[in-house]
Design a protein that fits this description.
Oligomer: heterodimer
Strand content of chain A: under 5%
Number of helices of chain B: 15
Helix content of chain A: over 70%
Order of helices and strands of chain A: H
Structural class of chain A: mainly alpha
Number of helices of chain A: 1
Largest interface: A-B, 34 and 52 residues
Strand content of chain B: under 5%
Shape of chain B: elongated
Distance between the termini of chain A: 49 Å
Helix content of chain B: over 70%
Distance between the termini of chain B: 75 Å
Largest sheet of chain A: none
Radius of gyration of chain A: 18 Å
Number of strands of chain B: 2
Structural class of chain B: mainly alpha
Largest sheet of chain B: 2 strands, antiparallel
Amino acid sequence: MEEKEFYEKEELEKDIASVKENAELLKRCTTLLEKIEEFKKD
Amino acid sequence: MEMDYKKILEDLEKKYEEFETQYKEIETDWIADFEGTQDYHTYMSYTEDEVKKTMYPEWFEKEQQMKDLKKKIVAFEKDVIVAASNVNKQLDESIQKIESKLKVNEDYIKGLNEKIENQQQEINTLKQSEAYINGDEATRLQVEELEAELVAKTYRRDTVAQDIFSMQEELAIIKVKKEQLLEKYGEELEAYDKASKETPDEKQLDENEGKDEKDEKSKGKKERTSNGGVVLPDANSNPAELSPEEKAKKEQEEKDKKLKEDFADLSSKAKKGKLTDKELDSFIDILKDKDNYDKLGLSMGLIFNKPRGIFKALNKKYKDDETKLASINEAYSIYEEKFFEKHGKEKLEKLSKFFVIDEVEHEKKTPILRAAAEEHEGAGGNRENNNPLGAELAGGVVGDGEYVDISSSSRKKGELDRGEK
């Protein structure tokens, strides 16, 4: 990562959005795993 | 380089939905057939093998298809764990990346604080100087300039600090949620990580995913919002922005959804004999409306699996209430008509044969069937007089438990030929 003295708010906001997106993907993965688990129970 | 797991996950979700739908569809028919095999086996004292050979070979085929699909879905779970593990790693990396950047900005603020402190000291020193006290204009202007800079620096420090604080808060929330999500599957993901480090599997999977990423790169970009967020389904879209057609469609979808929910609830209660009078009326109303059968789609299909169970429960509960029985009977007629449409003549024949074979038992158990049969005897029940069940029961019987081919053309005309076999 490039070393800077300061990161602008806009850049950080993009990073936060990326983190949120990854968190959402993880949530979808676990939801899918739950569905499979439920299916296996039937 | 980050991979487009959004696309990978969409594919996995789609694949799972396909598996599940396929499974449920087969299961729907399978359960319906199962009732047939079970009933037929019981009433005819056939062995399971005989039933398989004669009446319900498709049931065993479907059972095998379901087993195969179940195996596929269980194997598919591994793909989802791989995706989850990689998404989790990517999430960790993105969190670390922003934490590093926020740390840089924290250091920047520390530097800014030092500058502010030094500047404040400089101003204080100047203000205590002889020149300033004696009203020297140049010193006064210098102090004013430094004070203006100080205000600007302080404002910047406060703003940046507030931004860092807000983002740290957001990150903290995400991290807590992440831990909650991993509470259940953390061990599986860890196990996969460990295994992948020991085997070349991960490398292969990454290569495959890399290919996907390459293929879908441009698509992935389009699926993001301008600020990099995920494009979510428009569940919260403003209805005011919809066209009248879209609005009407949306409203209809909501109505259909409610209908499905209500029907599932009512049929469950009906089966258990727990319907209130008002609920029974609603249930019968739904069954009487032919359009509902299409609207209910698969949900109705699932209910179709055990319709006789539901009707039997209703008959038992309302055996002394002629009005309600008539209403239930009417609903049954419509159900049967739709059953015929859905499953075809062949299954209807099987259903009818089952009723005929077990006529004596059914007369005891189900007053509605007896009543229908009696009505037929008296009034020549058939489809035209809205008593198909009566027609099948009475018209189908020859001697002691023999049955006729109820699909004959004469039956359709309502003129049952008792001698026909």
